[in-house]
């Protein structure tokens, strides 16, 4: 089973650091900028960060205006679409749906995400997404992301089953195209790409499952402030989003975290969206970036 990644903001540490550094030099945006540029210089890849202070409406953007692969953080949009379907009487928040929402939003279960997408339907999910985030790229289920990535290598990959995709994803990245060619009964030279990185880059260049971080953060802001769903649905979504920020990816080298961090004792809330991409960087590199951004938020005095 794929190891799930979670970015959990440790509020005690954040507040302790904030009390040490708060107001020491400039605004929280300026203090965060210095640390983020340092993190970027040490990371062998690309990352974007969007932070919005919901209390004072201040923002911080680092490469947040360009499009990023949302990876499995599309679950935030899927969850909101599910609650919208429930409000319209098309779905019922029974034990099954509630369990899938927990698995998707709290445990990062990609299978639960795809099951909920099927319950809503891709057509209605995309209609909901376009209504609330007009510039978002077309959304697909997470298995389809992989199928279409393999189709960038060869059109016959369209016929891959979910079991085929799971098998391919279990193969080392460097050997995967060789296994794909054998599975499709074609020669390796007939593939249209030379690496999995190239296949992924070609897929995301089409705009599927992509969005700029400012727009994504703006949607989360509207979602938790009651502008998207009813008060009851908003409370439910906020509770799911505040518990943990998932930093998982649908494939190696692309990860995205999105959610809300809060300090109830000080009445402070912030939306945070962080996305990373690069040439197949390792999980420990991703965790290192998340940890450094976590510390940077603490030192900024935002909380």
Structure description:
This protein is α+β, with helices and mostly antiparallel strands and 303 residues long. It folds into two domains: 6-95 and 210-300, DD-peptidase/beta-lactamase superfamily (Beta-lactamase, 3-Layer(aba) Sandwich); 142-204. The protein is 50% helix and 16% strand. The chain contains 13 helices and eight strands. The strands form two sheets. A six-stranded antiparallel β-sheet has the order 1-6-7-8-2-3, sandwiched between helices. It has a two-stranded antiparallel ribbon with strand order 4-5. A hairpin with a 2-residue loop joins strand 6 and strand 7. The longest helix is centred in the C-terminal third of the chain and has 18 residues, at 283-300. The protein starts with 5 loop residues before the first strand and ends with a helix. Mean pLDDT is 84; it is low at 1-25 and 243-252.
């Amino acid at each position: 089973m794929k190891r799930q990644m979670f970015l959990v903001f440790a509020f005690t540490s954040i507040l302790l650091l904030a009390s040490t550094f708060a107001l020491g030099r400039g605004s929280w945006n300026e203090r965060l900028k210095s640390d983020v540029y340092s993190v970027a210089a040490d990371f062998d890849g690309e990352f974007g960060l969007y932070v919005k202070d919901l209390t004072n409406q201040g923002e911080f953007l680092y490469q947040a205006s360009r499009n990023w692969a949302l990876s499995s953080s599309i679950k935030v949009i899927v969850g909101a679409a599910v609650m919208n379907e429930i409000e319209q009487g098309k779905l019922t928040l029974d034990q099954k749906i509630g369990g899938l929402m927990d698995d998707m939003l709290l445990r990062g279960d990609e299978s639960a995400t795809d099951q909920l997408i099927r319950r809503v339907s891709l057509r209605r999910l995309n209609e909901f997404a376009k209504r609330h985030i007009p510039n978002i790229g077309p959304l697909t289920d997470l298995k389809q992301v992989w199928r279409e990535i393999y189709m960038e290598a060869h059109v016959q990959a369209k016929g891959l089953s979910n079991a085929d995709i799971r098998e391919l994803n279990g193969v080392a990245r460097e050997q995967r195209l060789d296994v794909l060619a054998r599975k499709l009964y074609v020669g390796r030279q007939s593939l249209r790409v030379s690496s999995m990185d190239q296949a992924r880059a070609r897929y995301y260049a089409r705009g599927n499952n992509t969005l700029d971080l400012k727009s994504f953060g703006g949607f989360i802001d509207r979602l938790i402030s009651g502008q998207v769903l009813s008060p009851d649905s908003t409370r439910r979504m906020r509770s799911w989003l505040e518990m943990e920020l998932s930093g998982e990816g649908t494939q190696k080298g692309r990860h995205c975290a999105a959610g809300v961090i809060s300090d109830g004792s000080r009445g402070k809330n912030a939306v945070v969206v962080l996305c990373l991409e690069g040439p197949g960087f390792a999980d420990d590199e991703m965790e290192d970036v998340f940890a450094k951004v976590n510390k940077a938020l603490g030192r900024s005095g935002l909380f």
